[in-house]
Design goal:
The protein is an alpha/beta fold. The protein has 3 helices and 5 strands; from the N terminus they run ββαβαβαβ. Helices cover 31% and strands 29% of the residues. Strand 3, helix 2 and strand 4 form a beta-alpha-beta unit.
């Protein structure tokens, strides 16, 4: 049984957040699954640091299987994009709070392009 599943594998264990992050196949970037919160912030920031180290012109962040991203998780994404020497980050299929937080705190941040769900 996955550590994120409750008894019988029917749902998350109360208070346990899970985040899986891995490379995208066939293009530069990462795919995340789960939720990005205080509990999972460390692996999220590590994945973004790896993404920045490997960044060339365009990097992709696939979030279609992410249920939730807190403000600090969006901030880590924005700070990563701002720290790149050039190019952009394309965020694909994020939860609705991601573009809202980006537009609120980083309006007009051209280094991040959001492809909606």
């Amino acid at each position: 049984m996955d550590a994120s599943q409750g008894e019988g594998g029917l749902g998350p264990v109360c208070g346990v957040a899970v985040l899986e992050v891995g490379p995208l196949s066939g293009r530069p970037g990462i795919r995340a699954r789960g939720e990005i919160s205080e509990i999972t912030r460390s692996p999220w920031e590590e994945a973004l640091a790896d993404l920045a180290r490997q960044h060339a012109d365009v990097s992709y962040v696939e979030l279609s299987e992410v249920a939730f991203v807190d403000v600090a998780g969006v901030a880590a994404l924005a700070v990563t994009a701002l720290g790149l020497s050039g190019g952009r980050v394309v965020v694909e299929h994020p939860p609705p709070q991601v573009p809202r937080v980006l537009s609120l705190f980083w309006p007009g941040l051209g280094r991040i392009e959001v492809a909606p769900r």
